[in-house]
Amino acid sequence: MLGFGLSIEPQLWTLVFTMVRVGAAFVAAPVFGAVSVPVQVRILLAGAISILAMNARAIAAPEQIFSLTTIVMVMGEALVGLAIGFVLQIAFAAPLIASELIGTSMGIGFAQAVDPLNGRSSPAIGQFLSILLTLLFLSVDGHLILVDLILRSYEAMPPGAAWLSPDRLRNIAFFGGYAFLAGLLLALPVGFLLLCLNLIVGMLSRSAPALNLFAVGLPASLAVGVVALVAAMPAMGDYMLVMVHEALEMTAMLVFG
């Protein structure tokens, strides 16, 4: 009897209460929160993982449904879940920042494509790097680590008493700067070569003012950019793997403090 006056099993309300944190994490997290993943699949996954969490931890639903305490508890659960998924989403924004730098220097910043992960238009290079980062995330079992962290968060931050401290919120904000730094470092190999090319084209324009820079500079930037991407791809892949590990470590730090 939880406020409706109906004989509903308390386990059902416990499942719904547990799904708040899990569902919020899946909405904000990469891969699980992709537009291509149907809502029904997310609900089924959230329900299945919530059942595992209920069996692994002692979770109790609020005694009263329509009360201020219950609303605050639900808000706290949603905030914890969103924070866990949002930290990983920050790392997945770095390839988009790198693609903006590379695409603008190559002269193909106008090349846009629909990103299947978020449903928005993004640079073609950014879509390629995002897919590569997603594959690396799955290759190191990042999705399983995320599920494990969600389950272990019920022990570190018990339901009903879970609320992010100002220190943890500040760490999330500071980790947002990591996306800009990671994007800059990811674009550094290709961007440095394109910068050198632009300096050479600039010197040529000063020495030969009659030279058509658009007829020479744009094809040269595109060719050098493609060659630089192919040459720097192993190093970029290794650094994106480091980004995945950094994001998972930051998520664990958020959960355990």
From TrEMBL:
This is Flagellar biosynthetic protein FliR. Role in flagellar biosynthesis. The lineage of its organism: Bacteria, Pseudomonadati, Pseudomonadota, Alphaproteobacteria, Sphingomonadales. It is a multi-pass membrane protein. It is found in: Cell membrane; Bacterial flagellum basal body. It comes from Sphingomonas donggukensis. Keywords: Bacterial flagellum, Cell membrane, Cell projection, Cilium, Flagellum, Membrane, Transmembrane, Transmembrane helix. The chain crosses the membrane at residues 12-35, 41-60, 72-97, 128-151, 172-201, 213-233. Its main location: membrane. InterPro entries: FliR, T3SS_IM_R. NCBIfam families: fliR. Belongs to the FliR/MopE/SpaR family. It comes from the Bacteria.
